[in-house]
Amino acid sequence: MNFSLFSESSDSVELCLFDESGGCEQRIRIRERTSGAWHVYLPNVAPGQLYGYRVHGPYEPARGLRFNPNKLLLDPYAKAIGRKLEWADELFGYTLGHPDGDLAFDDRDSAPFAPLAAVVDPTFDWTGENRPAHQAHEAIIYEAHVRGMTMLHPDVPEQLRGTYAGIASPPIVKHLQELGITAIELMPVHYFVNDRHLVDRGLRNYWGYNTLGFFAPEPSYASNPHLRVDVIREFKQMVKDLHNGGIEVILDVVYNHTAEGNHAGPTLSFRGIDNLAYYRTVPGDPRHYMDYTGCGNTLNMVHPHSIQLMMDSLRYWVAEMHVDGFRFDLASALARELKDVDQLGAFFDTIYQDPTIAPAKLIAEPWDLGEGGYQVGNFPPGWMEWNGKYRDTVRKYWKGDMGLHSEIATRLAGSADLYETTRRQPSASINFVTAHDGFTLQDLVSYEQKHNAANGEDNRDGADDNHTWNCGVEGPTDDADTIALRERQKRNLWCALMLAQGAPMISGGDELSRTQLGNNNGYCQDSELSWYHWDLDDRRRGFLDFARRVNGYRKRHPNLHRYAFYDSDPDAVHPDRNIVWFRADGKRMEAKDWEDGGWMRTLGMFLNGMAPEIRSSDGRCVQDKDFLLLLNAHHEPVAFRISYELYHSGWRVAFDTARPYLPVEREAVKRNRIVDMAPRSFVVLSHER
Predict the structure, then answer these.
(1) In sequence order, which residues have a C-beta less than 8 Å from that of residue 686 and are 6 or more positions away?
(2) H helices within 517-612, ranges in order?
């Protein structure tokens, strides 16, 4: 085994080997150094060997140097975690009581408490894997939590609940298939640390956005976390089984910061290895960190080795672990050069030129907490983005806010204002109504205020402005009318998500009507409050059935997930009519309607089934049915007249959110071409040419 550690500013490095129990430390002074990397070859090291590093050098926080050989450090390239962290004061690199002063040097040994890496055997039999390759415009993404999704599933074997194996178990794969999912996006599975302040309160970092190891799978998600090599094998088997079920695997990755926190945080790895190479420090005061993430530090993506670390990690997960793509948390922080987000920066350039990473699905959370960090629509071609503007517009429209007719039309048509001018496709827009961060879909229609008392922060955490409406009652209710309205609002939001142009993302459990009882920041709630409940009553089962039918309908009709915004094919039929907007009286929307129609809350969207933008999976132009999507966000019923410009007959009702059990396309629109829309309803009409 060759051990290597990059530390260009250090004086010397010791490799520390430990026995199976994590004791009996053996220190080996590393003599070789090449281009800033210390390395040593040991001929008799076997898989399972536990190890860490001690790095010697100046301890001068005022210069940004934090070397302290008393602190055992985790290898940034560790493939497996042999022993997890145990919180103790010894892990901090300064004397307790001086976190904001001179950060006095601390001589206590952290080895008994520090996380240890483990040497691994990477062999795995991928024979029989059928790796899918879904096109972006056909994607339906499902954001899921490894632990939360299976902890309460009665058909998942008890020993597999909350694990990688549980995610790939037959009942979960079947559920995803029946929902029409093409890719599961797993919340962070890189090794992460439970924050000390949470552990002290009996909580844990449930979401996992506190990474310490960018190569090692989180061991607590393994069915047998004590067998270190089996953690990797179980992860690979999960990927293989999901692939064979036709489902791609996307990882939510957190390369913007680490678990070491701010200048007063623990010294666990990067800080003690080479602080200035790994972290962005404040110009003129390198004791402190630039914090574009809200988590205390920001990785230094201006330094070549930090970029190399990220790229090596990405390549490892694609080439060795066979994942299909990545969702980059707070991606704007990665794209900052000296200060501003830069499309021509090293982050983008390095990814584009890499033949392993460039073909993968790349999804950005296009914002961070720094100035100018909101970058929705500004990531370069090849990237998909979480479209926060879509989320906010759809929520406000169905809540009943006025003056959104133009905005909702833009979002349902794929957000061309954000993506078409840069020649990106509608699939660049990851449309979502809810995500892990915020209210669930059920809570979105049940609460107007956050209820985060369980987090122990006096309800100060979590967003205050959520664009929610409780339908008249805050929280649970037995009122039948309120319950019926909430269910219809959920169906409206679901149809707006699944039938908009772009790539929809479902927040895991929304199809099950999962509730967090108004908690919109469940990051620390590893409990039944956040886990998915599978014991469905008739109401929840009815919504799940509706969600499946809508998703299946979307998948069958490429007109509902077009490949491009506009194709100037001279042979196209009615190229000016590929998407047309209508008023409730049947007339086309005109410029004055868009400009002066702030009172409008009812719209019709015609989708021409002969548009050249409609493509099959292999890229061929195909034809489909015509569709007319009718949206009524008004609190009163509306009689919507089908325009004379369309067809006198042949329209059928595919979906009506006011009548969720209506058989698809069994009901024809009457000859008067009037569609009676219930208050706050979404109606989908189809027409066979």
Answers:
(1) 625, 626, 627, 628, 651, 652, 654, 665
(2) 538-556, 591-596
* Identical fold between 2-118 and 572-687: yes
| C-alpha closest to that of 6 among 44, 55, 42, 48 | 55
Residue spans of beta strands (DSSP E) within 429-522:
429-431, 503-507
What positions carry a catalytic annotation?
Answer: 329, 365
How large is the greatest C-alpha to C-alpha distance in the chain, in angstroms? 88
Six-digit token pair at 475? Answer: 């929280």
pTM of the predicted model over 0.90 = yes
Residue 404: burial class (beta carbons within 10 Å; 0-12, 13-18, 19+): buried
Query: What pLDDT, in 10s, does the model give residues 652-689?
Result: 999 999 999 999 999 999 988 999 999 999 999 999 98
DSSP string, 583-601: -TTSPBP-HHHHHH-TT--
Structure tokens at 295: 């988590």
Q: 635 with 679: CB under 8 angstroms?
A: yes
Q: What is the DSSP letter of 159?
A: G
**Looking at domain 2-118, which of 2.60.40.10, 2.40.30.90, 3.30.70.100, 3.10.450.50 is its CATH number?**
2.60.40.10
Scan for tokens 């666990």, then name that residue.
268
Domain boundaries, the chain: 2-118, 405-556, 572-687
Average pLDDT score over residue span 361-388: 92
Using an 8 Å Cβ cutoff, are 569 and 542 in contact?
no
| Residue range 30-61, pLDDT digits in tens | 999 999 999 999 999 999 999 999 999 999 99
Angle CA 405–411–416, to nearest 5: 115
User: Hey, what CATH class is 572-687 in?
Assistant: mainly beta
DSSP state of 441: H
Paired tokens of 234: 């179980």
